[in-house]
Structure formats: structure tokens, C-alpha cells
Amino acid sequence: LSAEPTRPWPLVVRVARPDDHDAVMAFATTTWDGWDYIPRAWPHWLTAPDGVLLVATAGRAHGGRPAIDTDGNEIRDDLPIAVARVAMLSPTEAWLEGIRVDPRVRGQGVATDFQVAELDWAAAAGATVVRYATGERNEASHRLGARHGFEVLAEFRLWQWHAAPPDEAGGHDEEEPSGFDDAVRAEANRARARVLDLLGGEGLACRSSEAATWWQRLTADGTFERAHGLCEQRGWTMQQLTRAMFEHHVARGEVLCREDASDGWSLAILTRDAAPAEDADLKFGLVAGRLEPFARLAGAVRLAAGRPISFWLPHPDPPLVDRRDEALNQEGFYPRPWSLHVLSRPLDAHNPPPTAHSPDALVLADEPVPLQPLVDVPPSA
Ligand SMILES: CC(C)(COP(=O)(O)OP(=O)(O)OC[C@H]1O[C@@H](n2cnc3c(N)ncnc32)[C@H](O)[C@@H]1OP(=O)(O)O)[C@@H](O)C(=O)NCCC(=O)NCCS
């Protein structure tokens, strides 16, 4: 059973402002072994229309007394003590990301109440489902989600190309360029376009006349089913691939497919214009089908790209791999040694946004407003 928060002061949630920068960076710069992407996401997230960047501050306790942190120090009025973003991946799918609570106030229900505010924003934006992703080992994040009905929906591993077998894949490479950097992203997108045009020229891009056949194959595919029909459109987010979106990708030459007489078929989606995200890798948003044609397809993309590429596969035992990991290893692809969990909860009349642990524990200082979804492809005719 979860302990109820005992914090004697209300959490006040408002939209982040440029002048919150220093206060947020003071607790959101070194979260993971001295590293965090929030400093690079900050300038983009402050204004990006597909989401809202929220900060939480400490309101006054009863009798106007200032809030006190876990070390016994006063917390200044209006000072951010937590940050989080709510984004709309499509008109009905909300995505929670970037939650960080200042260590000086952790363990007091700040994230729990902040999450109520996030769900209020998601509901106002029209979400019928809310998801987020976290590392399999992030117990606090899993417990936080569980407080408001989130359950693990799917588990993925990131497979990356390596010139030599990695001894210990995992840790973050400090030197990795950030896809929040416009120049880095533009360069990566040029590489994506080059790859798609090259492979399209070799007849490896699905044609619009074949879209229905490939959609049928995809929806009957075991790997797609294990991925719960999810697809990465923006780095490190997962959303439902609808038929309309699939056709949209086909029309843009972004669906690569290959069929071999003896080995069957494989399909991979590579978007032309990656949306701003920390990760600027050339990454397939979705892969499906059989191992051999996929290995050939991925090898061709890697050669055309002239740089490492990566893709997500459901874990464990993705049907595509068919327990023959060494066939992908031979092409230079190895999975990271940890899984990404995608958690999900519905948001509808039967599953309304929760309320804070007590009526005066949470104040929404800004009224939630609609957001502009990242992908808004109308349903196909
Ligand atoms: C995760 C985080 C946001 C939680 O913030 P918080 O304000 O301390 O959380 P709360 O006090 O509201 O607690 C929420 C739940 O997490 C649990 N929890 C909090 N810290 C924990 C920890 N270090 N280990 C295990 N569980 C923890 C709480 O016990 C509670 O669960 P319960 O009700 O089942 O007991 C905070 O620890 C943080 O900023 N961590 C670093 C960033 C991060 O991991 N973000 C999530 C990435 S997806």
C-alpha cells in the first residue's frame, strides 16, 4: 500500500518561464550519473507547440508559513522545485516526459501531485490515453506511475550498430551530439533524406499502390503485435501507428521494404524529418517481418547512411529475431543491456484524471489549454 504524502504545503504548478532556467538547471543537469538532456531540451520545450513545459513551486503552508525542504531550509516563493513536460503525440495520445524533482524535496509526494497536474493538462488537450517511458530499473518512476493507474504496456530494447562488438554497451557518451541542436538535427535529416532517396531508387521504398498489402502484412506481424502497434515518431517516444499514418509514411517514401523469394519479407520505417529530440541517430521507428530480409535491409541502410543506425525491438524474444541474435550481430547490431518500459493509462469517463491526495495539496496556477499534436494525420478514406 502506498503511503500518503505528508507534505504540509501545497504544490503550485504553472507554465515554465525563461527566467526559471537557472533554478531548474540547478536540479536537472546531473540526474543520471552526472548527465541529463534537460539543459538541451529546455530552450526548445519552452516554446514547442506540441506540449507544455510545467514547473512546480512550493506554496505557503497553513497560516502563511513558508514551505520547508527535507533539510529544514525555507523554500522561496515561486521557485521551481520540479519540472515536467506533457506533449501530444497525436490528437488523442499524451506523452509525459522529463519529470525531475529537486532532491531537496524528494520523497514527499511532489511528483505524485505534479503527475495529477500533468494528467489534468493531458485531459484538457483531449488525450484518451497517456503514456511515458522509463528504464526498467527506475523503481521510483514505476511506483510514481502506479499511483495513478499506469501499467507497463510494452518493453523494448534499442539495437545499435557497432563497428566492433561492444564490451559493455550502456553508459552515455558525453560527446554524442544532441538532436535538440538545430544544426545537428539538420545534418541528420539530410542523411535520412539521402538514405531514403538512395534506397527508393533501388526499389526498396514501398509504393503507394502496395500500401494496402504491406499494411495487412504489418498488422498480422508478430513483432508489431508484441510492440502493441507502437512506433517511434519522435526520439524516445512511442505512439500508435494508425493506417493513415502508415500511408502518410508510404507517400513520403519512408517505408522501406524488402521481399526475398525464399526468406519472406521485412519492413522498416525511417522518417525523413526527425522532430527535435536528444537523440539524433538514424533510427527505424518500427521494424517488422523476417530476420534475413531485415538484416539485409538494415545493412543496406547502414551502408547508405555511412554512420551507425539503430532500431527498437520488443523484448524479450522478439519474433523478428527468432532467437538467432547472432545473425544480427554479424551485421554489427547489438542490443543495449537494459530495457525501456512503456507505461500507459487510459483517460476517459471511466478513468478520469485523479485528484491530489488532499483538496489543498495542489494548485493549478495556469488553466490547462489545448496543445497542438506533433502528428495530426487525418484518418484514411
Ligand atoms: C522519480 C522522481 C520524479 C520521484 O519524485 P518524488 O517527488 O520523490 O516522488 P513521490 O514522493 O511523489 O513518490 C512517488 C512514488 O515513488 C516512490 N519513490 C520515490 N523515490 C523513490 C526511490 N528513490 N526509490 C524507490 N521508490 C521511490 C515513492 O515511494 C512513491 O511510491 P509509493 O507511493 O508506492 O510509495 C524523483 O525521484 C526524480 O526526480 N528522480 C530523477 C528523475 C527520474 O527518475 N525521473 C523519471 C524518469 S522517467
Gist of the model:
The chain is built from 10 helices and 16 strands.
List the helices and strands and how they pair.
Elements (H helix, E strand, L loop, with lengths): L10 E5 L5 H5 L12 H10 L3 E8 L21 E9 L4 E9 L8 H15 L4 E7 L3 H9 L3 E11 L20 H20 L9 H9 L2 H5 L3 E2 L7 E2 L2 H9 L3 E6 L3 E6 L12 E3 L1 E4 L1 H15 L3 E6 L10 H6 L2 E3 L4 E7 L15 E3 L17
Parallel strand pairs: 1-16, 4-5, 11-13
Antiparallel strand pairs: 1-2, 2-3, 3-4, 5-15, 6-13, 6-14, 6-15, 7-8, 9-10, 10-12
Helix pairs in contact: 5-9
Bound molecules: coenzyme A.
Structural account:
By secondary structure, the chain is of the alpha+beta class. The chain has helices at 21-25, 38-47, 110-124, 139-147, 182-201, 211-219, 222-226, 243-251, 291-305, 325-330; strands at residues 11-15, 51-58, 80-88, 93-101, 129-135, 151-161, 230-231, 239-240, 255-260, 264-269, 282-284, 286-289, 309-314, 333-335, 340-346, 362-364. The strands form 3 sheets. Strands 1, 2, 3, 4, 5, 6, 11, 13, 14, 15 and 16 form an 11-stranded mixed β-sheet that branches. Strands 9-10-12 form a 3-stranded antiparallel β-sheet, sandwiched between helices. Strands 7-8 form a two-stranded antiparallel sheet. The mean pLDDT is 95. The structure holds coenzyme A.
